[in-house]
């Protein structure tokens, strides 16, 4: 079946919010057993609303036969972002310098089980990146996810670990990864 990819801006979030929350609950809770309060649907929905209120927020949802199968979303880091403030240990100033145009943060990428291992996550990711104008993209990944396999996938997509951070008191300690928005081979 062909995968249909749809771009969503903040104005379109009300139309896809239920699908995003449903996929989140299915994948994070049922598939991966992530049941800590940090991963609750309510907390995720609060973060979704906060991210979507920031400049440059956009999402891509993948559909097959009209059924949502995965999504990703993120935004541009503002000049006064706190994104890098919880790095462990603190990193060089030139890495964390932001000007409101330098870095896109990929906040979430989630794909339902039947569509994993088929390149769907990569297509959703790359489609989201197609419209980004920042020079680089960052994401956080729980290094324990999939016993390290999830981080390895991102590293295979060109991301490199620059440190670790714990952005919320009840969140996991994440690996912080960065890569150019456009890989040199795709230019």
Strand content bin: 25-35%
| Outline | globular
**By CATH's scheme, which homologous superfamily applies?**
Gcn5-related N-acetyltransferase (GNAT)
Taking all residues together, what is the mean pLDDT?
Answer: 91
CATH class categorisation: Alpha Beta
Rg, please? 16 Å
The largest beta-sheet arranges its strands as 1-2-3-5-6-8-7-4
* CATH-defined topology: Aminopeptidase
Number of β-strand runs: 8
Structural class: alpha+beta
Helix content: 25-40%
Unreliable sequence segments = none
- Major sheet, described briefly? 8 strands, mixed
Number of helices: 5
Order of helices and strands: EHHEEEHEHEHEE
Distance between the termini: 29 Å
CATH architecture: 3-Layer(aba) Sandwich
* Structural domain count: 1
Characterization of this structure:
- The chain contains five helices and eight strands, in the order E-H-H-E-E-E-H-E-H-E-H-E-E.
- The protein has 187 residues and is an alpha+beta fold.
- Strand 7 and strand 8 form a beta hairpin.
- It starts with a strand and ends in a 7-residue tail after the last strand.
- Strands 1-2-3-5-6-8-7-4 form an eight-stranded mixed beta sheet, with helices on both faces.
- It has one domain: Gcn5-related N-acetyltransferase (GNAT) (Aminopeptidase, 3-Layer(aba) Sandwich).
- Helix 1 runs antiparallel to helix 2.
- It is 29% helix and 28% strand.
- The mean pLDDT is 91.
- InterPro entries: Acyl_CoA_acyltransferase (IPR016181), GNAT_dom (IPR000182).
């Amino acid at each position: 079946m062909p995968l249909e990819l749809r771009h969503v801006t903040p104005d379109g979030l009300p139309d896809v919010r239920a699908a995003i929350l449903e996929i989140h609950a299915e994948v994070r809770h049922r598939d991966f057993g992530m049941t800590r309060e940090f991963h609750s649907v309510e907390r995720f929905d609060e973060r979704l609303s906060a991210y979507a209120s920031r400049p440059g927020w956009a999402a891509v949802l993948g559909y097959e036969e009209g059924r949502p199968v995965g999504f990703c979303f993120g935004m541009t880091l503002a000049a006064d972002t706190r994104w890098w403030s919880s790095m462990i240990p603190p990193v060089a100033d030139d890495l964390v310098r932001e000007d409101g145009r330098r870095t896109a943060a990929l906040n979430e990428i989630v794909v339902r089980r039947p569509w994993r291992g088929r390149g769907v996550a990569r297509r959703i990711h790359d489609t989201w990146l197609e419209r980004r104008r920042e020079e680089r993209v960052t994401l956080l990944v729980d290094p324990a996810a999939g016993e390290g396999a999830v981080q390895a996938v991102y590293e295979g997509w060109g991301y490199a670990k620059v440190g670790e951070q714990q952005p919320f008191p009840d969140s996991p300690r994440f690996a912080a990864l960065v890569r150019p928005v456009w890989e040199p081979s795709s230019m």
